[in-house]
Write a structure and sequence with these properties.
Layout: H1 9-65, H2 68-75, E1 84-91, E2 96-101, E3 118-122, E4 125-134, E5 137-147, H3 149-180, H4 182-201, H5 215-242, H6 244-332, H7 341-369, E6 377-379, H8 381-390, H9 393-398, E7 402-407, E8 414-416, H10 418-435, E9 443-452, E10 458-466, H11 496-506, E11 510-516, E12 520-528
Parallel strand pairs: 7-9
Antiparallel strand pairs: 1-2, 1-5, 3-4, 4-5, 6-8, 9-10, 10-12, 11-12
Length: 530
């Protein structure tokens, strides 16, 4: 509370005592004043009721004999009651039979309406109605209006007395609080002065005289105990301070030794960092050589694949060449004049188609044999598969291998190198072709579908499925090792699957194989969508 802020404890105690005493005195005065008001009103009502009863007995006969003059004379006896303002005598029907007004009252005031046996306080007045009976029969009603000025005077008198009592009580409370607050404030003030001396002098040997067995006394005892502990710690600090220089010298020597060791370690670390830098440069050089070697190895494997496909490619080129040769001979024959222009035109069109097919095969062969860059671009897998089949379609037909393609029409693009992926697909198809030698109803199924992942991303899975002889289970773990091959000697380098595995790894993809001997083999390639 703002009333108690920034003042001394003496003033706080005195204000608390004065405020408490004042509130209690005000409450007591209010209670007594309220009690006096209600008591005075009840006494006045009883007095007025008794007066009405006496007058009612005296005017009963006037009502019985309809004697108005006597009734008014009887009411005029109220002059002896100065607090009575007016009085009215009513008949049974409520008509005013007689009335009385005090000398100071306004005689033109209309009589109040007749009410039952009741009383009412209003505007500093008391209005009382009381029935007049004779032999258990009500003859009329008397109403008396009385002033409450006596109550106001009494309240004023009580107010003066209350103010006088409160003033005297406040004065006594002030004097007592001024004397009694010292019992609490003086030990606390003495404690504050002692604390100030200790903080100013840093002398923890000072002590306070023990106080009474109360909270302040406990506070003083705790303060003295705290000073004892601080003094002991101060003495220990002085002892440590005495030995501090020796410890500093010792620590300085140790730090000097450690610093020398650190300098030696720093030199060693610099030497190691230089060695690491040299090793890193050697690794970079080796990595570049490895990439070059890997690129050469991929190119070599590509050329090896072309060599393995050479027979089929030659046979595929031989068919259109044979057709061109036969058609040319037919046109050069002696009976060529018998051919009409339409037949010659159709023959030339077929020759053009054959040459276009030969050019397509040769151009794609040249493009495939060219060394590819390592950059990855958006790739349509359907087109890569079709390019792979350009070099293998004829071979599959010659071996009566049935090819079935199941490709998702809503296939998204992948990020990769089309030539490297074509090399992987050619390797998959070539292995499936060789695995179908001697099989009845040989078949290769190519499935391409989209896989949805839990995180919302997509992958594309390409499956190459054949119903060939299968791979023994003991070979499955080594199938992707370099130079490992299940083919007869001279029919493969053993690098195709190993290089295909490396290409798929570079494309952030996966390649898996599953096989059952006598039933066939499935290669699954999974690539992330762009």
């Amino acid at each position: 509370m703002l009333f108690f802020r920034n003042i001394s404890i003496q003033q706080k105690l005195m204000r608390i005592i004065m405020l408490t005493s004042g509130i209690l005195l005000v409450l007591v005065c209010i209670v007594f004043l309220t009690y006096e008001i209600f008591t005075f009103r009840d006494a006045m009502r009883d007095k007025l009721s008794s007066l009405a009863s006496i007058i009612g007995i005296n005017v009963a006969s006037t009502l019985l004999f309809d004697d108005r003059e006597t009734a008014e004379e009887t009411l005029s006896a109220l002059r002896g009651e100065p607090h009575v303002i007016s009085a009215f005598l009513y008949k049974k029907d409520g008509q005013v039979f007689a009335k009385y007004f005090h000398e100071s009252a306004d005689k033109d005031v209309l009589p109040p309406p007749l009410q039952d046996d009741t009383h009412t306080f209003f505007d500093g007045k008391l209005l009382l109605f009381q029935p007049i009976t004779f032999q258990n029969e009500q003859l009329g009603t008397i109403g008396i209006e009385s002033s409450m000025e006596a109550l106001d005077a009494r309240i004023e008198q009580y107010g003066v007395i209350a103010v006088t009592i409160m003033f005297v009580s406040f004065l006594i409370a002030f004097l007592l609080s001024f004397q009694l607050q010292r019992i609490i404030s003086e030990p606390i003030l003495h404690l504050a002065k002692t604390m100030k001396k200790i903080s100013t002098r840093n002398d923890y040997s000072l002590r306070m005289v023990p106080g009474d067995q109360d909270e302040v006394g406990f506070l003083i005892a705790g303060f003295n105990q705290m000073l004892n502990q601080i003094q002991k710690r101060d003495e220990k600090l002085k002892e440590h301070w005495d030995h501090l220089e020796e410890q500093v010298d010792l620590r300085t020597k140790e730090l000097t030794t450690v610093n020398q060791q650190m300098q030696s370690e720093i030199k060693e670390r610099k030497r190691i960092e230089q060695n690491l830098q040299n090793s890193n440069e050697e690794l970079v050089t080796a990595n570049e050589k490895l990439k070059s070697t890997q690129s050469q190895l991929v190119q070599s494997a590509k050329l090896a694949s072309i060599g393995e496909l050479a027979t089929g490619i030659a046979h595929e080129l031989n068919q259109p060449l044979t057709y061109i040769r036969n058609s040319t001979q037919l046109l050069l024959m002696d009976n060529a004049d018998d051919l009409d222009a339409e037949e010659v035109f159709e023959t030339l069109q077929q020759v053009e188609q054959a040459t276009d097919r030969m050019m397509s095969i040769i151009n794609h062969l040249r493009s495939f044999a060219r060394e590819s860059d390592i950059q990855h671009r958006p790739v349509q897998l359907c087109q890569v598969l079709e390019n792979s089949l350009i070099l293998l379609n004829e071979q599959l037909k010659n071996r009566n291998i049935r090819l079935e393609k199941k490709i998702d029409p809503q296939l998204p693009q992948v990020l990769g190198n089309s030539q490297q992926l074509e090399q992987v697909f050619i390797n998959m198809l070539s292995n499936a072709r060789d695995a179908l030698d001697g099989r009845e109803d040989p078949q290769i199924v190519i499935q391409v579908k989209v896989l949805a992942q839990d995180d919302g991303s997509q992958q594309v899975m390409i499956c190459f499925i054949d119903n060939g002889a299968g791979i023994p289970s003991s070979y499955l773990e080594k199938i992707f090792d370099p130079f490992f091959s299940t083919k007869e000697e001279g029919k493969g380098t053993g690098l195709g699957l190993s290089i295909s595995y490396g290409i798929i790894q570079d494309h952030q993809g996966e390649i898996h194989v599953s096989s059952t001997e006598g039933e066939g083999t499935t290669f699954e390639i999974i690539l992330p969508v762009q």
